[in-house]
Design goal:
Number of helices: 3
Radius of gyration: 26 Å
Distance between the termini: 80 Å
Shape: elongated
Helix content: 25-40%
Strand order of the largest sheet: 2-3-9-8-7-6
Largest sheet: 6 strands, mixed
């Protein structure tokens, strides 16, 4: 009788172990699928951006970091004449229809330029070198600071 009870417990333990192994395998497969899908989506997004012909029709989405007490500026773009920083921004994206790109990537690939961000409707404040603009409802400010080594620094901030 004791042998039958031990055999029954062993069968239950084996059954429970098999259930746990199956559950772990399904979890690993799900996580792998999600990671692979995200990677493929990023590649597809880059290919769509590279094949676009007109980059002038875009929407800008900026969000300030609510917990930014000191100016935390991150460098978005630099060449031999200018530096562009995001000033206390949590989100800085550009949308070309359904395709989204970070502002940093779009500036690096020259899909968008500083002149495109400034636009024709920019309101200029000469006193503090601020350019106020709005693109599809997104209000933002670009501050200009000439720098000592012939570079000009621009700071973009959501208004």
């Amino acid at each position: 009788m004791e042998y039958r009870l031990e055999k029954c417990h062993a069968f239950r333990n084996t059954k429970f172990t098999m259930f746990l192994v199956t559950l772990m395998l399904l979890t690993i497969l799900t996580l792998l699928f999600v990671a692979l899908s995200k990677h493929l989506l990023q590649i597809q997004n880059i290919e769509r951006l590279d094949k676009m012909k007109d980059y002038s029709d875009f929407k800008l989405h900026l969000e300030n970091n609510l917990y930014c007490y000191e100016k935390s500026d991150s460098l978005y773009f630099e060449n031999d004449k200018i530096r562009i920083y995001g000033s206390c921004l949590k989100v800085a994206n550009i949308y070309y229809g359904n395709t989204v790109s970070s502002l940093k990537y779009a500036l690096e690939k020259e899909y968008v330029t500083l002149d495109m961000l400034m636009g024709d409707d920019v309101v200029k404040n000469e006193e503090n070198k601020a350019y106020y603009n709005e693109i599809d409802g997104q209000k933002f400010v670009i501050y200009e600071y000439p720098y000592e080594n012939d570079k000009t620094e621009y700071f973009i901030e959501a208004a």
